Amino acid sequence: MRLHKGKYIVLLISTFLISQLSVFTIWAAPASVGSDSIKMSVVASAIAKNLGSIQLDDNVKASLEDVSIWPQASGNILTYTLNYSNSGNRAANLIHYFSRVVTSGGSVIPGNPVTADALKNKVVSKQTERVTYYVNIGKINSLKRLKISMYVWAPQSKGYLKYTGSLSIPADYSPTAISGQRENSFINNIPVSIASESLQIYKYGGKVYAKVGINFINQGNKVFMDPGYTAYLMSAEGTAFELAIDNSLAGYKIQPREKKTIYYLSEIPPYIKTDNMKVQYVQKDETLKLELPKGSYKLPAAKIPDLNVGKGVIKKIGINSNTIELQLTTANVYSENNTGIWTFQLRLKNAGKQAVILPSYELFVRTAAGITFPISAKGLGGASLKPLEEKVVQLTAQVPLEVEQNSLKLQMIEAVIPDSTEEVAGSPGTTQNPVSSTSTPAKTAKLTIPVAYFEIPYTLRADTHKGLDYQTTNQFGAFSYNLLSLQRFPWKDDDILIAKMKIINTQSVNLSLPEIKGALKVDNNDLADSTELFIDKESSSVAPGKSAEIYVLSKIPYTTNFRTTRVNLYSTVKEEKIPFLSLSTSNVTDAVNKIERGGSYVVVGKGKNATIKENKTVVYNGVNANIVYSELFLNSEEKRQSKMARLQAYYKTPDGQFYEATANQPDTPATPGGKQLITFFAKLPKSVDASGVTLYLGPGITGNKLSEAGQESDGFINISALELNMVAVTPDNNLSNVTLYPYTWSVTKSDGHNVRGSDTINIEMNYSLVRNFNYEVGTFNHKLVIKMTDPFGQSQEKSLVLGTDLTEGNNHTISLSFTNNMYKKMVGGTYAITLYDEFQGERIELAHQAYSLKIERLPTSEK
């Protein structure tokens, strides 16, 4: 009998244990249970809500905490938490203690632990352990007259359970915390103090949104993480609206002792009453397929925030518990094609103590009639701000001129919950009663609320005048700019329009320049596709007080006439244009910088610094055309071997006609301080007066760099007009010192002789050919033409290539022969040698000299 009785007791104990754990047989231990669980201190326990206690045995006491009801389709679920405290020296086994819910009708329903607490089976000595139980109470929806009865396992008692007492839920007890009052709770074994903070109502786009703020204080010593609860906004009538957490706060973390407000959003019907609303947190128990009520907090009276922001006023908003300042600092507009083109500058400052990343915003220009036009806000959403960091974002918009431009507002909208394809239980923003686990999955709707309505100051953008300094600020820093010149010149088959600007860093720190691109626009013609940009700078930043020059140039048809020019500078980030600077001017193109005759032209650029000075300009007078030919000396200002910039030039006639000049420039790098000879020439019609031409000169650019040898130039910049030293060549009357730069040819002796009866004149010339090596020279395209005029006055010519037909050096001899049948009858006389510089088929006489011709007799034989 004793053996059988012992077996029965063990079996009965097992039955009670299984009754409490049967619904959790497939459940794995939660992450919150184990060695990482926080042990509750006496101080922490003291802050929890206590609805009464029952002494279970000599060492163990159970305190009732946090009783709540949450309606379910299959029956309302009651949850309650028992805090077991063990004052004994041994661990207490929780399977010895049982709780029952007694309804007002006398029904007794056993409580079962929720999944998260299912494996809590003991209370360590001198410690406490909290266990939350649930009960399906059917249609009961009130806590009044409910009791929690406690039982202890007692084999000697009838039914093996000993009744230890009941705890009645106080009549004045409410599971909902009073508005603004802090409710102390334990979430994942971390003590947290929670209070409702705000309820704001927004009306936007014909919809009504409720934004709820709940404040958390982590009173534990571990990081409190988003427990993943579902939050509902409950009306006084019991209608529930699922709340979606602000997208920027998803997966939030709260450090120990940190205080943080978590915001939720939901769309609500416009007719719903907002008095006495509350927030109810619910936890989904996947194993039980139930929603279990957690905390409940009554909200303060709803407020409709005033979002209007006056001109220049700072708007403060909160992002992740940091204060962010927003200010619309400037707004300008100009008209184009019956459209107002607006530019804005929005200043952002992080006045908080932590770095923040701005959420996504939608910006619009809103008219008084409620019509909205989109604003391009590149660089705003997703921008990061360090503590006390300040940024300026440039915005652009287009508004039809038929809209009143002086009553517009800049509307800033936050996409609190973006569109999502992730399926969730319930649909945020829709009216619904709490549902069971069988609710149909739905897509998360996009929820947007207005942040601010900035009043836009109506300011017409004034023209930028050349030579004046203007101040501006953008996201890259503060600086002043100056339109130095606006020039138009011929280029190939088109014209080239060049805007030259200077940017000066007015900050006390470096001004970081992005990878700038440019676009020109004349009147309504967009020249972006043909626009090139060149920046005269050695690094990506400009030091305080220093400057950088920017050239923006574009090709236009030479027949184009225009009144206004607009320059847009921008950078590109992930194929999105970020504005840097925009200006417009109605000034006509201004006069080019002139360099007086004999003056120097200066080339400035990294590795390209040089001075250029004219040697001479001559005109080759031809039969059908004249050739203008200029020699220039380039002196490198670099301290190491450098590739000099490739120069481009045009000749301008006194009547305003331009002729492209062909350049001949050495391809080899210039030595430190070295010198180079550069030549330009152009063919002009005979009808053009070539004596008064001016050379328009500048370094070519390829892409955003100065052109080098082997590169084709896209245009040229920094153009100046060089007044030329036009030289009329006077032929020398002897051949002793003839210059054809860089060569000097000297004839020391010329002997001409003819054998009587022969048809040939043979001439031997002794000469020296000296090359000037002080200057590097490109391809030498000149020929030396020798014309011999015989005693009959008839001429014959020989073309010689210097350095090939004529050898460089001293004391060389060249033999030339000229044939004519008339020479058989010569009896004596003189011949004349005339030297010509031949270039591109045209000639200039260099020198001439006459020599005696010797007639030799044929030898006679003796008889």
Structure description:
The chain has 863 residues and is mainly β. Helix content is 3%, strand content 53%. The chain is built from 2 helices and 68 strands. The strands form 14 sheets. Strands 12, 13, 14, 15, 17, 18, 20, 21, 22 and 34 form a 10-stranded mixed β-sheet that branches. β2 (60-70) and β3 form a beta hairpin. It is elongated. It starts with a helix and ends in a 7-residue tail after the last strand.
* Intertermini distance: 181 Å
Task: Give the C-alpha Rg.
Answer: 48 Å
Shape: elongated
Strand content: over 45%
What share of the residues lie within helices? under 10%
Overall pLDDT: 85
Number of distinct helices: 2
Number of strands: 68
Which class do the helix and strand fractions yield? mainly beta
Low-pLDDT runs: 1-47, 420-443
Question: Main β-sheet: number of strands, strand sense, barrel status?
Answer: 10 strands, mixed
In short, what is this structure?
This protein is 3% helix and 53% strand. It is mostly beta strands.
Spell out the key features of this protein.
single chain; ten-stranded mixed β-sheet; 2 helices
Mind sketching the topology for me?
Blueprint: H1 2-21, H2 42-46, E1 53-55, E2 60-70, E3 77-86, E4 92-93, E5 97-102, E6 108-110, E7 112-113, E8 122-123, E9 128-136, E10 147-153, E11 161-168, E12 176-177, E13 183-187, E14 190-204, E15 207-218, E16 224-225, E17 230-234, E18 240-245, E19 253-254, E20 259-268, E21 278-285, E22 290-298, E23 308-309, E24 315-319, E25 322-336, E26 339-350, E27 356-357, E28 361-366, E29 372-376, E30 384-385, E31 390-400, E32 409-417, E33 423-425, E34 431-432, E35 441-443, E36 447-455, E37 469-474, E38 477-491, E39 494-505, E40 511-512, E41 516-522, E42 525-526, E43 531-536, E44 541-542, E45 547-556, E46 565-573, E47 576-585, E48 593-595, E49 600-603, E50 610-621, E51 625-636, E52 647-652, E53 658-660, E54 662-664, E55 675-685, E56 694-702, E57 705-706, E58 715-716, E59 720-723, E60 738-740, E61 743-755, E62 760-771, E63 776-777, E64 783-789, E65 795-800, E66 809-819, E67 830-839, E68 842-856
Parallel strand pairs: 12-22, 23-36, 48-59, 55-63, 61-68
Antiparallel strand pairs: 1-2, 2-3, 3-9, 4-8, 5-6, 5-10, 7-9, 10-11, 13-14, 14-15, 15-20, 16-19, 17-18, 17-21, 18-20, 18-34, 21-22, 24-25, 25-26, 26-31, 27-30, 28-29, 28-32, 29-31, 32-36, 33-35, 37-38, 38-39, 39-45, 40-44, 41-42, 41-46, 43-45, 46-47, 49-50, 50-51, 51-55, 52-53, 52-56, 54-55, ...
